[in-house]
Design a protein that fits this description.
By secondary structure, this protein is mainly alpha-helical. Helix content is 69%, strand content 0%.
């Protein structure tokens, strides 16, 4: 699936959540989508959380 298709499906899911559930449902769907994206990238090997948790002492 290419990036345009994923973007379209994400926009549609957020639109449905906003229309049928209101603002808080929109935020919940957006947050869970972001969480799913982060977990998916970690499982794929594209994202390493140690890059973000490195101490300031090491450079």
């Amino acid at each position: 699936m290419n990036a345009a298709t994923v973007g379209l499906l994400t926009g549609m899911a957020l639109g449905f959540a906003a229309f049928f559930g209101g603002f808080w449902a929109f935020l919940l769907v957006a947050f869970l989508g972001l969480l799913g994206l982060i977990i998916g990238r970690m499982l794929q090997g594209d994202l390493d959380l140690s890059d973000f948790t490195r101490s300031r002492d090491r450079q």
